[in-house]
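Q: I'm building a small set of examples for a reading group on sequence design. Run inverse folding on the following structure and report the sequence directly after it, with nothing in between.
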């Protein structure tokens, strides 16, 4: 089983939104073979609590524009690791320190990655 087309659409929109707020190390994994509850994870990092919150706000705004509403949101109060569950995808926005400590990409390395558009992976201004 692979992620649905709708899940990939949401992944791309979430990754673009995170990139727009200068998130770093944006990755997406197809976890549909491993988890029955979701198709994909998006992981992104922010350099400060304020940036993490800005990334989360932008992801929610952009996904709302394409008709997706979060089922659940966790960790928003602390701003260190915010999880936004959309059912089909789960977006993890982590402070850089939490990202290094928890290393989610290491935990999910056996899952295939979902290719993101070049403007997402290139970072701001094509850097």
């Amino acid at each position: 089983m692979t992620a649905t087309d709708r899940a990939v659409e949401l992944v791309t929109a979430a990754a673009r939104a995170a990139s727009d707020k200068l998130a770093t190390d944006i990755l997406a994994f197809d976890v549909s073979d491993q988890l029955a509850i979701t198709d994909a994870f998006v992981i992104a990092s922010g350099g400060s609590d304020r940036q993490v919150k800005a990334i989360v706000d932008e992801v929610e705004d952009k996904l709302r524009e394409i008709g997706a509403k979060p089922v659940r949101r966790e960790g928003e109060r602390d701003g260190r690791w915010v999880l936004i569950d959309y059912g089909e995808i789960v977006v993890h926005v982590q402070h850089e320190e939490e990202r290094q400590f928890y290393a989610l990409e290491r935990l999910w390395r056996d899952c295939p990655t979902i290719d993101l558009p070049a403007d997402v992976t290139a970072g701001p201004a094509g850097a």
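The chain has five helices and five strands.
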